[in-house]
Design brief:
InterPro entries: Aminopeptidase_N-like_N, Aminopeptidase_N-like_N_sf, PepN_Ig-like_sf, Peptidase_M1, Peptidase_M1_dom, Peptidase_M1_pepN, Peptidase_M1_pepN_C, Peptidase_M1_pepN_C_sf. The protein is of the alpha+beta class. It has 27 helices and 33 strands. The protein binds arginine (ARG) and zinc ion (ZN). The site of arginine (ARG) has 12 residues, from strand 20 and helix 2.
C-alpha cells in the first residue's frame, strides 16, 4: 500500500518528460507468487534535453532484478532503485537507447487490485490511473505513447487463454507444459491502457463487419459455464459498434475486440485497447439473475468502454487533470447511445436524477472540485460524479449552444486534428470554437470552476403593454479554496406555455440573447422582456435540463400544477411534478419536527393518480414520476439541520397519502400491467415492470396490500419482479414472518450466485431504521460475504452507508462507529475501495448538531490513524477541512 506522502500534484507544474518511450516490449512469465516481467524499452531523449539529464521512471512497490542498457548490465553507481522509483543516473550519450528491466511481482498477493492481480485464478490487470508502475518501472503518465509488443508465458493447464492488447501475432508450446502467446498493438498508447489476461475462461464468439467492410472478431470471456449469460452484452457491443459509426463516424480499428469479465474489480470496467476488462456485474445477465436496471447498466457500460476506443484511446489525455476530456465526453456519448436505443425522455430524467443524487452533493460539499481539477493528492479519488456526470453535462451544453450540426463538425475536427495525441480541455474547446466561430471563453468556466450555479428567477406580465418579463440572477456558491466565483455562461432552455400547453408566441426580446428556445445567461442579472405577449403564460424553465444548475423560482402553485399536467417538454413536465412533491415533502418535514402530523393537498395526491393512469405517457415515465424524491435528495433541498428520521417520516406519510387516495386506480392498473408473454429486457417491457413495481410499493403500504407483495414475490418469473417484491417486504414489512420467509427463500436459492447475493445484501443493508446496523455488522460474517471483494463490500457496506439514511445516521452514532471500523478494515487490503466508501460522510455538516458531532468524531478517528493510504487520507482530510 502506498502511504500518503502529502505531495500535491498541480496542473501548473505540468511539463513534458525529458524522455520518450517509443517501443515497449514486455515478457511475462506468469506465476502467482513470483511473476517475472522483462521490459525492453526503446528510449529517446527529447530534442534539446541535456545528455546528462537522468532518466527517472515511476515504480510502486517494485523489486528490480536486473537492468541493462544497449546490452550492457548497469553497475550499482549508474542507477538508483527504490520500490517507487528508478533513476538511470548516467544515461548514454546517444539520443536513442534500449533499456532492459527485470522486475518480479506477486499477483496473488495484490489485494489492492491495481497492476497485475489474480481474480478467481485468472490473471488480470487494471492500470488506470497509475497501476502500470506496479508491473514495471516506466514513465507512467498518459502523454507517453508507446507501441507495445507483449509475450505471455504460462502453464497451459492453468492458463490456456493468454490475451493482451492489439492483434494476436504468434503462439506456441514451450517446455514443461508451458505455452506462450505474442500480441502486438500497432496503435501507440499510454501505459494506463495496457492489459493482460491469462487463465481458463469460457468464450462467446461473434463478429462485426465495419462500415468499410472489415471483419472484426469479437470475444467475450467469462467464468467457464457462464457463457449463456454473456449474450446480452454481446448484442449491446454490436449495437454500440454500429451506433458509433452512424452517430460519430467512428469505425473500429483492430482485427479483434475482446472483453473479459472478472469478479474482483475496483470500478465498473476499463477500456484497455482492444481488451476491455469488466466487473462481471456489468457483463453477466439473464432474466433469472439480472434486473432491468442491470440490463440497462450493461448496455451503457459496454457502450461506454467501446466508445473510449476513440474518445480516450485514439485521443487520450495529456495528464490526469484532463481526465474529463475522455470521461465526460464518453459519458455524453453513452448517454446519447442509450437515449437512441431506449426512450430519450425517460433516459434524460434518469440522468438528471443520478446527477442530482451523486454530483450535486459532491459539488455542494467539502469534496467539491472543478470538472477539470487543478490539484490532487491521489488521482484515484477524482474518478468522480463531477468529472464523469457533470463532465458529460458540459458536453451536452456545448451541443445545446452550437446546435447539432456545428457540434458534429466540431467532433469531426477533434478526431481529425488530435488523432494519436494526448490532448487537453483547451484543445477540445478550440475545435468547437473553430467549427462554429463562437467564443467559448466564458463557457470554459464550466471546466474550471467548481460548485452548482443557482438561478433565481421571477416573472411578471404586463397585460396592457403585452409584455412578459423574466428577471434572472445567477450566483455560484463558494467551494473549497474558491471563495470568489466568476460569472458563467449558462444556456437556459425555456418555454412560455399557454392554455392547453400550447407554446405562446412572442415578438422582440431584449435583455439577453435568446435563440432556439434558449436564453443565454452571461451576466449576473438579466431582465429579459418578451414583447407581444397578450396573456400571462406559465414559464417552463431549464427545459431538457439544459444546464446543471439549481433554480429558485418564484412560481404560483397553480402554474406548477398546470406545467405538471401540460408542459410539452417531457423533462420539464416531470420536473414540475417532482418540484411539487419536493415542496410538499419539505413542508411535511417541518410539520414532523414541529410535532404535527403531516398533511398533503388533495390535488397533489390526485395528480399522482392521474399521471399513473395517463395512457399517453410511457409507463417508464410514469414510474419515474411516481417515485418520490429520495431521502438524501430531500435533505439536500432542505440544506441544513437534517434529521433523517423526520425526513423518513415525511416521505412515508406522503407515500401513504398517495396510496390511500388512489387505491382503486392503482390496483386496477397493477393488475392490467401483469406481464403476459415471454420475458424481454427491452425498454418498453422494462417500463411496464417498473410502473407495476412502484404501484406495488404504494399498495403494500395499506393493510389491504400487504399480502400482495408476498404473492408478487412468489409468482415472479424474473429478477426484476422478485427483487422488487423482496425489497417491499423487507423494507415495508421488516421483521414480519412474510419478510423473513422471503429473505430466507431467496438466500437459499441463490447462495452460490455471488452477483445475486449482492442484491440480497443490498436489500438487507437498506432496511430503514435503527436495527439495521446490527444486521449489517452480523452479515459481514455471512459465508457469501468477503471484505476482499469490492462488489460485496459495496453491496453491504456501501448500501448501508450511502443509501440507508435512517440506519446509517442512527442518532446514537452507532452507524458511524461501524463505518469507521469497516473503512479501516477494507483499507488494509484495498485503499481505493475504502476511500470511495469514506465519501459517505461528505454531507456531514448538513446534519443536525447531535449527529454532526458524532459524524465528526468518526472522521477524526480515521484521520488519527497512523500510516493511512494516500487515497483514504486525502478523502477524510478534505471532508474535515
Ligand atoms: N476509465 C474507466 C472508465 O471509466 C475507469 C477506470 C477507473 N480506474 C481507477 N482506478 N480509478 O471506463
Ligand atoms: Zn470511462
Amino acid at each position: 500500500m502506498r502511504t500518503d506522502t502529502g505531495h500535491v500534484f498541480k496542473l501548473e507544474d505540468y511539463r513534458p518528460s525529458d524522455y520518450l518511450i517509443l517501443q515497449t516490449s514486455l515478457v511475462f512469465r506468469l506465476s502467482p507468487e513470483a511473476t517475472c516481467v522483462i521490459a525492453t524499452l526503446t528510449i529517446e531523449r527529447r530534442e534539446g534535453v541535456a545528455a546528462s539529464a537522468p532518466l527517472v521512471l515511476d515504480g510502486d512497490g517494485l523489486t528490480l532484478l536486473g537492468i541493462a542498457i544497449d546490452g550492457r548490465d548497469l553497475q550499482p553507481g549508474d542507477y538508483a532503485a527504490t520500490p517507487d522509483e528508478l533513476a538511470v543516473l548516467k544515461p548514454p550519450a546517444a539520443s536513442r537507447f534500449e533499456l532492459v528491466l527485470e522486475t518480479e511481482i506477486a499477483p496473488a498477493r495484490n489485494e489492492a487490485l491495481m497492476g497485475l492481480y489474480r481474480s478467481s485464478n485468472v490473471y488480470c490487470t487494471q492500470c488506470e490511473a497509475e497501476g502500470f508502475r506496479r508491473i514495471t518501472y516506466f514513465l507512467d503518465r498518459p502523454d507517453i505513447l508507446s507501441i507495445y509488443t507483449v509475450r505471455i508465458e504460462a502453464p497451459h493447464n492453468e492458463a490456456p487463454l493468454l490475451l493482451s492488447n492489439g492483434n494476436p501475432v504468434d503462439s506456441g508450446a514451450l517446455a514443461d507444459g508451458w505455452h506462450y502467446a505474442v500480441w502486438h498493438d500497432p496503435f501507440p498508447k499510454p501505459s494506463y491502457l495496457f492489459a493482460l489476461v491469462a487463465g481458463a475462461l469460457g468464450k462467446v464468439a461473434d463478429s462485426f463487419t465495419t462500415l468499410s467492410g472489415r471483419k472484426v472478431e469479437l470475444g467475450i470471456y467469462v467464468e467457464p459455464g457462464k457463457e449463456r449469460l454473456a449474450g446480452y452484452a454481446m448484442d449491446a457491443l454490436k449495437r454500440s459498434m454500429k451506433w458509433d459509426e452512424e452517430a460519430f463516424g467512428r469505425e473500429y480499428d483492430l482485427d479483434v475486440f475482446n472483453i473479459v469479465a472478472v469478479s474482483d474489480f475496483n470500478m465498473g470496467a476499463m477500456e484497455n485497447k482492444g481488451l476491455n476488462i469488466f466487473n462481471d456485474k456489468y457483463v453477466l445477465a439473464n432474466e433469472e439473475t439480472a434486473t432491468d436496471a442491470d440490463f440497462a447498466n450493461i448496455e451503457a457500460i459496454i457502450a461506454h468502454e467501446y466508445f473510449h476506443n476513440w474518445t480516450g484511446n485514439r485521443i487520450t489525455c495529456r495528464d490526469w487533470f484532463q481526465l474529463c476530456l475522455k470521461e465526460g465526453l464518453t459519458v455524453y456519448r453513452d448517454h446519447e447511445f442509450s437515449a437512441d436505443q431506449r426512450s430519450r425522455a425517460v433516459k434524460r430524467i434518469a440522468e438528471v436524477r443520478t446527477l442530482r443524487a451523486h454530483q450535486f452533493p459532491e459539488d455542494q460539499g467539502p469534496l467539491a472540485h472543478p470538472v477539470r481539477p487543478r490539484r490532487y493528492r491521489e488521482i484515484n479519488n477524482f474518478y468522480t460524479a463531477t468529472v464523469y456526470e457533470k463532465g458529460s453535462e458540459v458536453v451536452h451544453m456545448i451541443r445545446t449552444i452550437l446546435g447539432a450540426e456545428a457540434f458534429r463538425s466540431g467532433m469531426d475536427l477533434y478526431f481529425e486534428r488530435h488523432d494519436g495525441e494526448a490532448a487537453t480541455i483547451e484543445d477540445f474547446l478550440k475545435v468547437f470554437e473553430d467549427a462554429s466561430g463562437r467564443d467559448l471563453s466564458q463557457f470554459a468556466l464550466w471546466y474550471h470552476q467548481a460548485g452548482t450555479p443557482n438561478l433565481t428567477v421571477s416573472s411578471s406580465h404586463n397585460a396592457r403593454a403585452k409584455e412578459f418579463t423574466l428577471e434572472i440572477e445567477q450566483s455560484v456558491p463558494p467551494t473549497p479554496s474558491e471563495s470568489r466565483k466568476r460569472l458563467m455562461h449558462i444556456p437556459l432552455g425555456f418555454g412560455l406555455v399557454g392554455a392547453g400547453g400550447k407554446p405562446v408566441s412572442y415578438g422582440d426580446v431584449e435583455g439577453a440573447t435568446v435563440e432556439d428556445g434558449v436564453i443565454h445567461i452571461r451576466k449576473r442579472r438579466h431582465v429579459v422582456r418578451f414583447t407581444g405577449v397578450a396573456e400571462r403564460p406559465a414559464v417552463s424553465l431549464n427545459r431538457g435540463f439544459s444546464a446543471p444548475v439549481t433554480l429558485s423560482v418564484e412560481q404560483k402553485t397553480d402554474d406548477q400544477f398546470f406545467l405538471a399536467g401540460h408542459d410539452s417538454d417531457s423533462f420539464s413536465r416531470w420536473q414540475a411534478f417532482n418540484t411539487l412533491l419536493t415542496d410538499a415533502l419539505i413542508a411535511a418535514f417541518r410539520q414532523v419536527l414541529g410535532g404535527k402530523p403531516p398533511a398533503f393537498a388533495q390535488r397533489l395526491t390526485e395528480l399522482a393518480g392521474r399521471i399513473a393512469a395517463d395512457e399517453t405517457l410511457e409507463p417508464a415515465y410514469r414510474a419515474l414520476a411516481l417515485s418520490l424524491p429520495g431521502e438524501a435528495d430531500i435533505a439536500r433541498d432542505i440544506g441544513k439541520g437534517i434529521d433523517p428520521d423526520a425526513i423518513f417520516a415525511a416521505r412515508e406519510a406522503l407515500a401513504l397519502a398517495i396510496a390511500r387516495a388512489n387505491w382503486e386506480n392503482f390496483t386496477g392498473l397493477y393488475e392490467r400491467l401483469a406481464d403476459k408473454g415471454p420475458f424481454s429486457p427491452d425498454a418498453a417491457s422494462a417500463g411496464r415492470r417498473a410502473l407495476r413495481n412502484i404501484l406495488l410499493d404504494y399498495l403494500a403500504l395499506l393493510p389491504e396490500g400487504a399480502a400482495l407483495a408476498t404473492t408478487h414475490f412468489r409468482s415472479a418469473s424474473n429478477m426484476t419482479d422478485r427483487a422488487a417484491a423482496l425489497t417491499v417486504l423487507a423494507h415495508r414489512h421488516a421483521g414480519s414472518a412474510e419478510a423473513q420467509q422471503a429473505l430466507a427463500g431467496f438466500e437459499a436459492k441463490y447462495r452460490n450466485d455471488a452477483l445475486v447475493m449482492d442484491k440480497w445484501f443490498q436489500i438487507r443493508a437498506g432496511v430503514p431504521g435503527s436495527k439495521t446496523v446490527e444486521t449489517v455488522r452480523a452479515l459481514t460474517g455471512h459465508p457469501a460475504f468477503s471484505m476482499a471483494n469490492p462488489n460485496r463490500v459495496r453491496s453491504l457496506i456501501g448500501t448501508f452507508s450511502s443509501a440507508n439514511q435512517t440506519g446509517f445516521h442512527r442518532a446514537d452514532g452507532e452507524g458511524y462507529r461501524f463505518f469507521t471500523e469497516t473503512v479501516l478494515e477494507v483499507e488494509k487490503r484495498n485503499p481505493q475501495v475504502a476511500a470511495r466508501l469514506a465519501t459517505a460522510l461528505r454531507s456531514w455538516r448538513s446534519l443536525e448538531p447531535g449527529r454532526q458531532a458524532k459524524a465528526r468524531e468518526a472522521l477524526l478517528a480515521i484521520a488519527g490513524t497512523e500510516k493511512l493510504s494516500a487515497d483514504l487520507r486525502d478523502i477524510v482530510e478534505r471532508t474535515l477541512a
